[in-house]
């Protein structure tokens, strides 16, 4: 255990710029910052020393589906990617996190398995915002410390986590607003059967893309903005994939509405034109769209319409991903990419954005969204000693043997990415260094109470 240490970098992210500095740590807290190298400081040279990366959108799946992923493997993969905090989504686990009892079961399941810090969301489903027996489960979850509430506007893929309607969101938003937490929405509204050939050609990526049109997402975003305006409830649009929603989001922000939006690394790194048929590793919902669309998502990150980048890490065993059959219609929809948030996002963005504008997209902005920016997202005295040290100029090829997810099947396999994690420090403890996990169990729960 490292109780006291100092680290110097020529490129330390202090006060919104890269500059030479030494960061001193004691008992998991940053105690001093010197704008020079002090005696006995560990020197990491030109590697960037910055606040720890925060991924606000991760499906860990434990308890109940630990064979898909789990706290142990997920948080090791996060550490290998320079991530010091993840927030776990309320579905894919069994039971889903829509009751206080289920939330407590998840906390118990995660004990002694956290290698990075972990926060949790609760889920909004039909009925759990009501008082059937004097118990409002949604309110109970917020009192228990969840960092936000997640809902789906279309089928989630998990029958135990049904989608909500406009009426149910309308009823829940005043409760959520009272606690000052964000409502996170998966924005697709299923309108009617799309007239395309996906059922006849279930291995075709083109027909899969057409089966989930942008209009579903556009309509859903428009509805969430309307409800946000009505209730002044913090509203977050997860995994934006349709560039046609960007003008709506921009206008809502200009209006002063408390709305935020993210996109994911796979929506800006991959393009539909390059995705082969019969490869279910690329299947996710909403789908990865065309390059012209995705270039607009990148521009929206650069100009602030989109607030930050997440992974929406949602893995599954190879048989459920239909890797042998290539049947996109049957395959579980989700991208395994937690370990590659930093390099995939930087590789996608480095030609259109400076590194100074890039860093907050993974650190300060998600910390502000989660309302933990009084202790995370910056290198400052009194802040938690969560630190990422990385080399943005070094590239590497993703190889299955280096992936620490429970399963090493990922669309990033074989890709050459820029940005190598040199060291990940969680609560003052180095958990990843020199391409391997060096410490475990350094993470903590982060509950909003």
Helix content: 25-40%
What is the CA–CA distance across the termini? Answer: 28 Å
Helix-strand sequence: EEEEEEHEHEEHEHEHHEHEHHEHHHEEEE
Structural class: alpha/beta
Low-confidence segments? none
Profile the largest sheet. Answer: 9 strands, mixed
**Apparent shape:** globular
Radius of gyration: 21 Å
Strand content: 15-25%
User: How many β-strand stretches?
Assistant: 18
Average pLDDT rating: 96
Number of helical stretches of at least 4 residues? 12
Quick structural summary:
The protein is of the alpha/beta class.
Write the layout of secondary structure elements.
Layout: E1 4-14, E2 17-26, E3 29-34, E4 42-43, E5 48-51, E6 53-58, H1 71-80, E7 83-88, H2 100-110, E8 117-120, E9 122-123, H3 137-144, E10 149-152, H4 166-178, E11 183-186, H5 205-211, H6 214-231, E12 235-237, H7 246-254, E13 259-264, H8 265-269, H9 291-303, E14 308-310, H10 341-349, H11 355-362, H12 364-369, E15 387-397, E16 416-426, E17 429-433, E18 436-437
Parallel strand pairs: 1-4, 1-5, 6-7, 7-8, 9-10, 10-11, 11-12, 12-13, 13-14
Antiparallel strand pairs: 1-2, 2-3, 5-15, 15-16, 16-17, 17-18
Helix pairs in contact: 4-6
Written account of the structure:
The structure is a single chain. The protein is of the alpha/beta class and 449 residues long. Helices cover 26% and strands 22% of the residues. The longest helix has 18 residues, at 214-231.
Main attributes of the structure:
449 residues; alpha/beta; 9-stranded mixed beta sheet; 6-stranded parallel beta sheet; 12 helices; 18 strands
């Amino acid at each position: 255990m490292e109780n006291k240490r100092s680290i110097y970098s020529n490129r330390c992210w202090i006060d919104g710029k890269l500059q030479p500095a030494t960061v001193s740590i004691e008992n998991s807290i940053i105690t001093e910052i010197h704008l020079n190298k002090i005696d006995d400081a560990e020197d990491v040279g030109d590697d960037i020393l910055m606040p720890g990366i925060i991924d606000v959108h991760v499906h860990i799946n434990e308890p109940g589906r630990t064979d898909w992923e789990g706290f142990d493997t997920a948080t090791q993969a996060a550490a290998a990617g320079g991530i010091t905090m993840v927030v776990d989504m309320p579905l894919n686990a069994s039971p889903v996190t829509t009751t206080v009892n289920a939330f407590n079961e998840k906390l118990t399941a995660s004990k002694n398995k956290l290698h990075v810090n972990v926060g949790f969301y609760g889920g909004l489903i039909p009925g759990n915002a009501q008082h059937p027996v004097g118990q409002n489960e949604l309110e109970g979850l917020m009192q228990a410390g969840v960092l936000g509430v997640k809902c789906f506007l279309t089928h989630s893929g998990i029958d135990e986590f049904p989608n909500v309607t406009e009426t149910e969101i309308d009823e829940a938003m005043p409760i959520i607003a009272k606690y000052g937490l964000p409502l996170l929405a998966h924005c697709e509204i299923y309108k009617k059967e799309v007239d395309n050939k996906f059922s006849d050609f279930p291995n075709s990526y083109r027909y899969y893309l057409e089966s989930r049109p942008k209009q579903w997402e556009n309509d859903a975003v428009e509805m969430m903005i309307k409800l946000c305006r009505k209730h002044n409830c913090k509203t977050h649009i997860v995994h934006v994939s349709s560039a046609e929603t960007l003008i709506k989001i921009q206008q809502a922000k200009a209006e002063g509405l408390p709305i935020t939006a993210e996109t994911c690394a796979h929506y800006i790194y991959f393009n539909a034109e390059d995705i082969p048929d019969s490869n279910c590793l690329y299947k996710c919902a909403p789908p990865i769209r065309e390059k012209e669309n995705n270039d607009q998502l990148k521009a929206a990150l650069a100009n602030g319409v989109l607030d930050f980048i997440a992974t929406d890490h949602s893995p599954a065993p190879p048989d459920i991903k239909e890797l042998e059959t290539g049947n996109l219609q049957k395959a579980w929809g989700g991208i395994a990419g937690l370990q590659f948030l930093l390099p995939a996002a930087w590789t996608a963005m480095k030609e259109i954005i400076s590194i100074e504008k890039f860093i907050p997209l993974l650190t300060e902005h998600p910390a502000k969204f989660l309302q933990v920016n009084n202790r995370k997202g910056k290198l400052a005295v009194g802040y938690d000693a969560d630190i990422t040290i990385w080399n943005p100029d070094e590239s590497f090829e993703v190889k299955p043997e280096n992936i620490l997810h429970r399963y090493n099947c990922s669309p990033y396999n074989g890709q050459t990415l820029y940005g190598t994690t040199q060291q990940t420090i969680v609560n003052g403890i180095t958990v990843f260094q020199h391409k391997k996990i060096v410490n475990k169990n350094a993470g903590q729960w982060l509950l909003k109470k």
